[in-house]
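Reopening: Motile sperm domain-containing protein 2 still failing for me.
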Amino acid sequence: MSVIAIVSQDKLDEARSGVKTALEEVSKEDYDERDVTDFMNNDMNTSYYVQWSKTIPEAVKLAVKSFKIRKDNQINDLTPDIVGIETMKKGYMFLLGRDVNGCRVLHMRTGKMEKKDKEANQKLMMLWLSRIQKAEPGKRVTFIMDTTGSSLFNSDMGFVTFIIDCFATRFPGLLEKNIIYNLPGVLNAMWKLVSKMLSPEQREVTIMCGKSEITKYIDEDNLPESMGGKKSFEYSYPPFPDELES
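Support: Ran it again with your exact input. Result attached.
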């Protein structure tokens, strides 16, 4: 489903009551009050956690865990300046078009990334997801990991694990599809290891495809020419090459 449905009031109340009780056992240093306020007052935000979890107790545990990780990563305060303007200019990640279900598509070009920039790249990923979630609350995002030009030299297992965890804890429920595009044969062994880390829910939305299959998920009008689409696109920054609020 490309749009998050707000859960029943009973579930909202139960989840919020559970989180309120759980936070009484947690130091205030372990969470950002803005995340808690959003969870307690924003039905859509609470629904992300409840729908991603199988039960309300699991949603409560996830929320408390998520609050801590988001605080540690300072997600609410991330800006292009904190990520690094030079990183922003490289065009590793960008929004372009929508998938066949109307979800925005976030592209990541791993062939251009370097392991030494791991911390900056993690901040970049979180900044983009935060921008998307704020701009279109309740809508999911399709993520394309474009591995064209990637090699063992610049592939980072740790960063791939971070991406998986991003959608599981920092932004639970946000992912519509995870498309692994054009995976080189030399990375097959690494991907087999990664796939074992995926939850059943993550496996269900993960797709491996090349140029001949990608149009099943994103039509030609929303694909860049480099993927066989009709969309002319050249990344530049600043400003962001999209209409989202910066």
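The radius of gyration is 18 Å. If you still see a failure, please send the error message rather than a screenshot.
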